[in-house]
Design goal:
By secondary structure, the chain is of the alpha/beta class. It contains 8 helices and 7 strands. The protein has one domain: P-loop containing nucleotide triphosphate hydrolases (Rossmann fold), CATH 3.40.50.300. The chain has a 7-stranded parallel beta sheet with strand order 3-2-4-1-5-6-7, with helices on both faces. Bound molecules: guanosine-5'-diphosphate and magnesium ion.
Length: 223
């Protein structure tokens, strides 16, 4: 006898993700599921974003890592709520894990919720957690061919942030090649080049974020 458990696991996940989504909708939150390999700059981006959004939009973060509260501690320093989920051996966040964080956030006092997923270029793409969009970071030290090797991740993402462009001159990473490879896999994908260290491109990222927040709010008002 053969039982396809993966289909059931994903269906069960989708059901909880829908419950999460209803809660986020009720609170008018724009929710982003931020994915990348470990070390590409997810937490740095959130630290920068927290500072840049101060006094404009209210940000909250749910962050997943196998162990430690280091990332939530880093983000909390910016006076925004940050809940750490430790996943142990699990290599991605699923909807059920994210549901555990929701009672600990005052969602009605937040505009944007970012879920920093566990660093991994494969599994996070397969699970929805109740987000409006998946977005991802590829840093220039990882190689410009990655969209072709991990197409699902790029295919599922609305936005690609190419990070660490301050280092590009020290690598063989081609920004043109990376853009072309990403668009081969996902022609609709928005792409913004940034450096969380120098701040280059972060104005475009903040514009993308605020535009999508207001778009969502307008959609909710007309629904
Ligand atoms: N040179 C450079 N280093 C960066 C940049 N963004 C992040 N880093 C560094 O990359 C490392 C990993 O960053 P982190 O935000 O912890 O990555 P995460 O694992 O994706 O959350 C840290 O040492 C950061 O200082 C960048 O734009 N340029
Ligand atoms: Mg991190």
């Amino acid at each position: 006898m053969k039982i396809n458990v993966m289909q059931d696991v994903l269906q069960a996940n989708d059901k909880i993700a829908e419950d999460n989504r209803r809660i986020f909708q009720k609170n008018n939150n724009l929710v982003l599921n931020l994915m990348s390999s470990p070390g590409s700059g997810k937490t740095c981006l959130l630290e920068r974003t927290a500072a840049l959004l101060q006094g404009k939009l209210r940000l909250g973060v749910i962050v997943g890592d196998c162990e430690t509260t280091r990332d939530a501690d880093r983000i909390s320093k910016y006076n925004i709520p940050a809940i750490q989920l430790t996943t142990g051996t699990a290599c991605h966040l699923d909807a059920n894990m994210v549901s555990y964080a929701l009672p600990h956030l005052k969602l009605e006092e937040l505009d944007i919720v970012v879920v920093e997923n566990v660093g991994n270029l494969v599994c996070p793409a397969g699970f929805i957690v109740g987000e409006d969009y998946k977005i991802m970071i590829l840093s220039v030290t990882e190689g410009d061919e990655k969209p072709l090797k991990y197409p699902m991740m790029f295919n599922q993402s609305k936005l690609l942030l190419i990070n660490k462009i301050d280092l590009v001159q020290y690598t063989n990473f081609s920004l043109e090649e990376a853009r072309a490879n990403a668009h081969k896999v996902n022609p609709e994908m928005d792409i913004i080049e940034i450096s969380c260290t120098t701040g280059a491109g972060l104005d475009q990222w903040i514009k993308w974020l605020t535009d999508h927040y207001w778009q969502k709010l307008k959609g909710a008002a007309h629904a």
